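Q&A log
Question type: sequence-to-structure
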Amino acid sequence: MLFVPPAWQKICKKSFAGIYESVLNVRSVSDLQEAIFIVLKSFYSLRAIMEKRDANADAAVSAVNIIVQRMVNPDFSGVAFSCHPLSGHESLYVEYVPGLGEGLVSGEKESLQLQIDSEDPRHRQAWQQINGIINSARTLLNSHVDIEWAYQDGKVWLLQARPVTNYARVECDNTPRAFFWPLYGDLPVKLAETLPAYAIYFNQKRKPLIDIARLHQKTQPGAIILQANRYALEDFVLQQQLLDHFTGQYVVVDFSDAVRQLIVDKSTLVDQLTALMSEGRRLYTVVLRDFIKGECGLITRKVQTPQGIKLVAEVSPDGLMAMNRGTAISQILTLDNPQQKAGLTEDNISLLHRVTADALRALGDVQIEWVLSGGQLYALDYSAVTDTQLVFSANGRVMSQGYARGQVYLITETEEIESYSIAPSMSLTEVPDASVYGDLFSTMVQEMEKLPFPPIVLARRPYAALASLIPWVAGFIFEKGSLLSHLGILLREKKLPAVCDEQLFKQIKHGDIFVLDTNSTR
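Response status: OK
Response body:
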């Protein structure tokens, strides 16, 4: 049996279950050579690379060890957990199948639960040995663990052990229980330690901005953490207390890792939560927020202008997602110029200026995302600005400064590129791999590699997916687009010139030799 062991120091928070190939029943030297190649190849598979990247371990895990173990022919085999895999309760949980355990791990065979009081003496013997093995593994790995094992001729063989990375102790109560906590408030330490990742993100990541916004604007959207069991939702008084937290018609529900950003009508919120809480006794942790659709999205930050540092707002009726993904058409205004309103009131512009200025002082170089709803502005989130300083010109067309000369490469398949850009899996923090987008991007890369010099790409919008072409491109020209989009930020980081210029977009053609100089364009 051959398999790849993970590099423990870097991925102790990830189980990496099943991402590498294992080869069973290797019987000859030639089979061994082939098996080594199969296992080694799986180390460089797309799935393995993406898992390691997600764990921030792709750079550190650059080499592979391949383990060769004796192949056993077990009477039965399976998996065991030091805690219950669903509830997280402290108990040994063991499942098995007759023969090899490969079918259990892959889901092809239906498993049985191994019990200490089984009538089969082999099962009782295996349970006792597994209990000792799993306790040793838990001590060694300093974590709850799951193991794969095999039982043959009265002996349990340990095949592998790894940390349980996603267990959570689930509280249960037969009496109605419900607690409300402010999502952006100071939470009790015990509660904070048990929160799911999405709740921690809101409380720890967004709270500093919301605290600043509250200093200038008392009215904020409803946002709470609800801890409750289903029995509590049967109480009419508690139902009303829950609904009173929200002022809008719709509520956003983050119920679990699998049920996120569910938008429900407030009148059906209790029914929806009751349906989701399948176990009446279990205490569920749910994040609930007012849903704010808004008339437009805004991004504020500081920029360099000919007159010095200014605070600006980019405004788009297409919304924040379209702005970030590069599909929006937007307008930029300076926050110290009351004549440039873009549908905003003077009070709106004043609020944008004050909150942005305070955030820059408290949080460093950041840009802030807003939504305008019913004439009211709400600060939603912020992100650190790591790109080089954005230079704002008189007409706002320069996305990234620089100089480039090359052949113009026109991109026409905008519908497919836009669909990639708005996909949930689209990374907004790094340059994505072009190969993951299929034949379209692979073909474009192949065509660019045949050119004598990197081309200047001509595209309708700064679509986020175009970031995957950065390694092969000298510059970009867009017809229209958001200067503060994801792609714009990456282009400034990489110091690749780019402009949004409708007239220039119409003038130049595919195959033209063009000099892109943002100083003259500006």
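Response note: Residues 176 and 231 are 5 Å apart (CA to CA).
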